[in-house]
Amino acid sequence: MKRSVWTGLISIIVVGGAHRAEATWGLRFDVSRNGGATWESSVDAVPGDLISFRFGSYFDESTQVKTVSGTGPAQTLCRFTGQNQVLGMMASDIIQSLATRTSNFHPNVIAVAGNVIGTTGGNSFASNLYLRGLPSAPTYYNAIYTGEIRISSDASLRTLTLCNKQFGSGTIAGLTFFNGGYLPKQEIAAPVDHPNHIDFNAVIHVVPAPGTFALGIGALVVGRRRKRQNAA
Question: Residue 48 — left, alpha, or beta (φ > 0 → left; ψ -120 to 50 → alpha)?
Fold first, then answer.
């Protein structure tokens, strides 16, 4: 019995270690209630709020890129191609003020049509993302673009989910990286485990303003009183 327990524990440790060793890379959305001073994966909003958001890509130090020169660690993110969306929007909710954070991009990457950002074309791209150096380890992240969502005055309860819609376009990989370090050249390629990327979505929970909720309760109480008075 004891041996079985130890065997199980060893298996868990081995599997857990193997899981941590796997490369993690992909796309990430964040939202902010204070204009980008702090970023979160989820925020609450009330009708009329202005919520900032950012979209970017990340990879960790175990992400490997295979090129004709050989296989090496990802050093910089070269290019994003694809299309994003905001699920759960009402027609009166508005995506606005999109701005790229890259040195080279096609306007299609921040084109907005309803709840969709970007296009399905191969020219919906942003590239040269890390020309000013890598962001902080151990997970390297930089924003591709930022924007805002203006929540309409409609008080309906709803959840807006910022997520990817199309990863890449046709034969064009959604993310490509430079590799380097000990390799003789730097070349552009998708990670070795492409397309097994992990995306992190962000959500905005639209709830009634506290005053609106109180007014609703008050109206309900008044209505019940009137019914009682009429019945009497």
Answer: left
Topology of domain 26-219, per CATH? Answer: Immunoglobulin-like (2.60.40)
CA dihedral 6, 8, 11, 13 (to 10 degrees): -70
Please give the Cα distance from 222 to 109 (Å, whole number): 52
> Count of CB atoms within 10 A of residue 88's CB?
16
| β-bridge pairing 202-206 and 158-167 | antiparallel
Residue 122's closest CA among 111, 136, 101, 106? 106
What distance, in Å, lies between the first and last C-alpha atoms of the chain?
A: 74
Q: What is the mean pLDDT of each run of 10 residues along the chain (232 residues)?
A: 38 34 86 97 97 94 83 83 96 97 93 96 85 71 94 96 91 83 62 79 93 50 54 58
Q: Where are the domains of the chain?
A: 26-219
Which residues, including other chains, have CB under 8 Å from residue 55's CB and lie 6 or more apart? 27, 28, 29, 84, 117, 143, 144, 145, 146, 147, 162
Q: Which residues contact 8 (CB under 8 A, 6 or more apart)?
A: none
